[in-house]
Amino acid sequence: MSKYVVTIVLAITLATPVVYSDNSTMTKHLKVLIASNDLPVSGVKLLQEHFTVVQNRFSYYGDDEKVQSQEECLKLVPGCSAIVWASSHSITDELLDKAGPNLKIVATASAGYNHCNVDGLKARGIKLTNTPGVLSAAVAEIAITLMLVTARRFTEWLQQVESGKWVNGLDKYLGQDIRGSTVGIVGFGGIGQATAKRLAGFEVARIIYSGHREKPEGKALGAQLVPQDDLFQQSDFIILSAPLTNETRHMINRSTLGKMKKNAIIINVGRGDLIDQEALYEALKNNDIYAAGLDVTTPEPLPADHKLLKLPNVFVTPHIGSGTERTRNEMAILAAKNVINALTGKSLITPVLP
Ligand SMILES: *[C@@H]1O[C@H](CO)[C@@H](O)[C@H](O)[C@H]1NC(C)=O
Ligand SMILES: *[C@@H]1O[C@H](CO)[C@@H](O)[C@H](O)[C@H]1NC(C)=O
Ligand SMILES: *[C@@H]1O[C@H](CO)[C@@H](O)[C@H](O)[C@H]1NC(C)=O
């Protein structure tokens, strides 16, 4: 009897390397560029298991190392089969041309792809993937955070704490409730829906959303599709979680701000250019609306002396929506898996351009 067991065990042991053949030797010659020095290690390691990875030594987020990182990308990209884009800067035609005919896919470690030169990629037949889904919860948490800190006037309160002069009192610096409010969500995709889900405990009166069509998930979340103008007119909180496109650019402008309630609070976790910032500044300064909480601005970083930052009714965070350890790792791994699939003939997990 035991002889059979030994034989079976032996057979399985010997068979194992054959069944799970490691294909990485077949792809190791393919070169993959990581366009920034800050992709979480989990994603870098996964790519290194399959490919020859070249990585930008510079950060590619703000302006500090922009020139060096651009130059380094141009230097490293020739012959690459894939680029993992971990940058808010735009993908240039020059970079795509420098890459040459090997380039099959760009995987951006972001949900938004307004900076990814979709026209340029399409023209060259290059695939594009993004990382939606995995970041919805983290961004929704920041949307809720910004609702709370703007409704409860944190900018002013924190100034008082810093100065040591508290003007506390039963009728001083009163904020407003989320309870009983109408929350309008512009862009009811993953982030918008995750935000609605998280509002479930806040006893809001209504959740409404705008968009091209009714979303099947809306009903379960107690959210109702309304025309965009109705949303602007009726909402106490307006949450922007729409992608930036030609259609949505400056959707918050003088005209739409003029339709809002005096106590309206605008939260932007989408992209800075959804808002005409000059018009927003005027509306906030004149108290035409109550406050704004912005995780995204134009430009980023917003200069420290920017006039928006001098207003008492603005709270700005430096584009940290997806910035948790877990989420950034999941984004890096999803981007890496998309690259692996693209270069091994499998279907993309989260395609933008399949
Ligand atoms: C290895 O390659 C073979 C043939 O291309 C494929 O069928 C198999 O799924 C690959 N295995 C892995 C683990 O990717
Ligand atoms: C957006 O507008 C720009 C400039 O007007 C144009 O070049 C581009 O093709 C437009 N993109 C789409 C997707 O319509
Ligand atoms: C203002 O936004 C609305 C809808 O968001 C749009 O229809 C209108 O064209 C915009 N106006 C300007 C001047 O951008």
UniProtKB/TrEMBL annotation:
Leader peptide range in chain numbering: 1-21
Domain D-isomer specific 2-hydroxyacid dehydrogenase catalytic: 39-352
Matching SUPFAM superfamilies: Formate/glycerate dehydrogenase catalytic domain-like, NAD(P)-binding Rossmann-fold domains
GO cellular component, one term: cytosol
A molecular function (GO) term: glyoxylate reductase (NADPH) activity
Superkingdom as given in the UniProt entry: Eukaryota
Keyword terms, alphabetized: Oxidoreductase, Signal
Residues annotated as domain D-isomer specific 2-hydroxyacid dehydrogenase NAD-binding: 144-321
Any matching Pfam family: 2-Hacid_dh
Similarity annotation: Belongs to the D-isomer specific 2-hydroxyacid dehydrogenase family.
Protein name, UniProt field: Glyoxylate reductase/hydroxypyruvate reductase-like
Organism whose genome encodes this protein: Galleria mellonella (Greater wax moth)
